[in-house]
Write a structure and sequence with these properties.
Blueprint: H1 26-36, H2 50-54, E1 59-67, E2 76-82, E3 94-96, E4 109-117, E5 120-124, E6 127-128, E7 141-146, E8 151-159, E9 169-172, H3 175-185, H4 188-191, E10 195-196, E11 200-203, H5 217-220
């Protein structure tokens, strides 16, 4: 069973998601806002239920996203695609990189997310939230595996060039920091700590709407 849409409480450590303006899912976002009373689905670790942790048919993925500072006009998201179908996974998980209103972290703008996903191979990359923005640089896409009944940490997607039409997006290992924060959000991460399984860089194809198209077919099918 997938994650339901929630709103995070407006506390010092929580994140209210900025409204999605991503064209491909505008209708979905509007529906979620109307039904759930908030702008986007909430993938905070606190939103994961005991049943989702115990579900033997799905796995849990912990990932953080962040940037030096908050951005609005040239904000970026980290979408997750099914590697086989090239479609956004069910639930439309577009994780904000630098579009958060409040940060989960005290020293930068960033979000910690946890997702319950079916087993399989997935791709995560960076795209501009504004669909009319065109990239002036390249950024990698990463692949990761979800194993049924397992929890994994795949890394932090970090944007070092703030609020520009150049990406400079990298994958970093902040396992200890992110797992410690996940423990505070949800004690299930204490009893069921995720394994470190850093996502693998696939390529340096164009960011945005061209990203998944530039991934070699052999890599999508692996």
């Amino acid at each position: 069973m997938g994650q339901a849409a929630h709103c995070r409480d407006n506390t010092t450590t929580s994140t209210n998601r900025a409204p999605m303006n991503f064209v491909r899912i505008a209708a979905c976002a509007a529906l979620l806002a109307a039904v759930a009373g908030c702008a986007t689905p909430d993938y905070s670790p606190s939103a994961l239920t005991p049943a989702q942790f115990a579900d033997p048919s799905r796995g849990v993925v912990l990932v953080s996203t962040g940037a030096v500072e908050r951005c609005i006009g040239a904000a970026m998201w980290a979408p997750i695609y099914d590697a086989r179908t090239e479609a956004l996974v069910a639930g439309q998980p577009l994780l904000p990189i630098d579009a958060t209103r409040q940060s989960d972290f005290p020293d930068h703008y960033g979000t910690l997310s946890a997702l319950s996903l079916p087993p399989g191979r997935y791709l995560i990359t960076a795209e501009w939230a504004n669909p009319v923005s065109e990239p002036t640089s390249q950024a990698p896409a990463w692949s990761f595996e979800v194993v049924a009944g397992k929890s994994v940490y795949i890394g932090e997607i970090w944007r070092a060039t703030p609020c520009q039409l150049s990406a400079n997006v990298v994958l970093r290992d902040n396992y200890e920091r992110d797992v410690a924060l996940a423990d505070k959000f949800n004690t299930r991460f204490i009893t069921q700590p995720p394994l470190k399984a850093m996502a693998s860089t696939l390529h340096n194809g164009l960011v945005g709407r061209q990203t998944k198209k530039s991934i070699p077919e052999t890599q999508r099918r692996q």
